Amino acid sequence: MKNLKEKIDTKETFLLSVHIPKTGGTTFGKILADSFGDSFLYVYPCENDASRFVIHHTLQGIHDMIHESKGILIEDVIAYIKENNIYAIHGHFEKEITWHMLRKLDSHFFHITTLAFVRDPIDRVMSELDHYKVHWGINEITDDHYIRSQNMLSRSIDISFPDLIICRTEQFHKDVQNLGFHWNGISENITPIKGLHNEEKIRSYNTQDVELYRDLL
């Protein structure tokens, strides 16, 4: 039986990879970019307008564009995928956007696989809050930050996505290998230090994710 990488290589499936923040998605995106080259596309919402997207074949290209570009509509993203022989995409998608792409791409591809890495919701949020401090220079975490990081799993994943593959951040290397990819580096995530954040508050803000995570496993 072919693994996922082999199926993408032979164009037997199109991969829609959903990047949930702080789950190893940046690292997995690099693996996909290295594996598929011009057949791979990063797709990320603009920082100032989540209804528009920037696209590029490299992560650096996305970083250069995401804060400045006005982006393109999702319909233009779909058209680019169809016209440019793209067989794998990766990015931050609300589940409504994923469903829209799945419906629009269904008749174009022989088969579509959706995939996401998921992580214990409490650890994921703590890691995201740490990210705010380290990379955004935020000294004090407020309710706005808890809300911003709230229920990311439930906002991104629908358990009824067709041919959904769920991988776990906690066993990143094993799952990457099972998919057919080779990776000798480390997942670029901030490992949260227990006790720095209010875990009960995080749990109360993320009850949907806690339940969905349990169902997915």
TL;DR of this structure?
The protein is of the alpha/beta class and 217 residues long.
Describe the structure.
With 217 residues, the protein is of the alpha/beta class. The protein has a domain at 4-121 and 158-188: 3-Layer(aba) Sandwich (Rossmann fold). It is 45% helix and 17% strand. The chain has a six-stranded mixed sheet with strand order 3-2-4-1-5-6, sandwiched between helices. A hairpin with a 2-residue loop joins strand 2 and strand 3 (49-56). Helix 4 (74-83) packs parallel to helix 5. The longest helix is centred in the middle third of the chain and has 16 residues, at 121-136. The protein is globular. The two termini are 23 Å apart.
The portion of residues assigned to helices is: 40-55%
How are the strands of the biggest sheet laid out side by side?
A: 3-2-4-1-5-6
| Mean pLDDT reading | 91
Largest sheet: 6 strands, mixed
Helix-strand sequence: HEHEEHHEHEHHHEHHH
Number of helices: 11
Low-confidence stretches: none
In whole angstroms, the N-to-C terminal distance is 23 Å
Structural class: alpha/beta
The CATH architecture of the domain at 4-121 and 158-188 is 3-Layer(aba) Sandwich
For the CA atoms, what is the radius of gyration? 17 Å
Strand portion:
15-25%
- Fold-level CATH name of the domain at 4-121 and 158-188: Rossmann fold
Judging from the principal axes of the Cα atoms, what is the shape? globular
- Quickly name the level 1 CATH class of the domain at 4-121 and 158-188: Alpha Beta
Number of strands: 6
